[in-house]
Design brief:
single chain; 294 residues; alpha+beta; Beta-lactamase; 5-stranded antiparallel β-sheet; 33% helix; globular; disordered N terminus
């Protein structure tokens, strides 16, 4: 894959998140319960530093995205895993710990629903409801019960891993213990989630999968996040929430780079969930402002 080259450009990046690091907690939380707290926190205004545009341009030059995001996750960068790519040709816009394992929380539902669509048709019935309905409830509402039933229905974690492998997802890049993401035995790399998202974008049932993702500022677990920002209505992504864990992976309709696919995972149990969410949203907003360097 290509990677955008860095050009010499002296500019101060002021967006820094204060983050304390600690050993991951073993306690498990309800994804849906904590997500409700995130809804409230999401109503807070988001402050983001965007370097001033040069004459005749708008947004942030792509060469500046690395220092901008590094500033947001510094000084505890080991806690973060991020991968951002152009969907069309795989150009890497930003990469940090993209092959490191993280607890993904409800981002594991992306594996569950992608595998289900690989094995079954959207019209297949599960307890009198269509698979499409099950996938929508699983992702938009982040329903843990639906996700676990869905995984069981398709044959369990081994069957899901086999289905994803057929789609080109390296089985060594994630470990799935349940369908919902509540188990801390689930681990995944940002690259495994990017590969799954990319495969699903070109899958026959991509519309079912894509429409099941929450939309920033508008629906599901993202309805109260990034409101009134360039991300509203342009970011379709799955949230993830456990104690000390936050995640966001999905697609962005970008003004300059077309469709962008991204995965952001952070494991840091001593930082408040609202602070982690604000940092993730700021990263997404930084990505939304970049443009090609002239």
């Amino acid at each position: 894959m290509k990677k955008i080259r860095s050009y010499t450009h002296s500019l101060a990046i002021l967006a820094t998140a204060t983050i304390a690091w600690a050993t991951p907690s073993i306690a498990e939380d309800s994804d849906q319960a904590i997500t409700t707290i995130d809804y409230f926190q999401g109503r807070q205004s988001i402050e983001i530093y965007v370097p001033p545009p040069e004459p005749g341009t708008s947004g942030t030059c792509a060469a500046l995205i690395e220092p901008a995001i590094n500033g947001l996750i510094s000084p505890y960068q080991a806690n973060w895993g991020i991968l951002v790519e152009k969907l069309e040709d795989g150009t890497t816009l930003y990469s940090h710990n993209s092959d490191k394992f993280f607890i993904p929380a409800s981002n594991i539902k992306l594996f569950t629903t992608a595998a289900a669509l690989q094995k079954l048709s959207p019209q297949s019935k599960i307890r009198s409801r269509s698979l499409q309905d099950w996938i929508t409830v699983t992702n938009v509402r982040s329903n843990n019960y639906y996700a676990n039933v869905l995984l069981s229905h398709i044959g369990g974690a081994a069957a899901a891993k086999s289905a994803l492998a057929q789609m080109g997802v390296n089985p060594n890049t994630f470990r799935q213990a349940d369908g919902s993401g509540l188990s801390r035995r689930n681990v995944a790399t940002p690259r495994s989630l990017i590969t799954t998202l990319r495969a699903m974008y070109y899958a026959p049932d991509k519309d079912v999968f894509h429409s099941s993702l929450p939309v920033a500022g508008m629906s599901g677990t993202l309805r109260n996040r990034m409101k009134g920002t360039p991300a509203q209505g342009t970011v379709y992504a799955k949230t993830g929430t456990l104690r000390g864990v936050r995640a966001l992976s999905g697609y962005m309709n970008h003004a300059h780079f077309g469709k962008v696919v991204f995965s952001i995972l952070v494991n840091n149990p001593r930082v408040s969930g609202s602070s982690l969410v604000r940092s993730i949203d700021n990263i997404v907003l930084q990505i939304s402002t970049i443009q090609p360097c002239e």
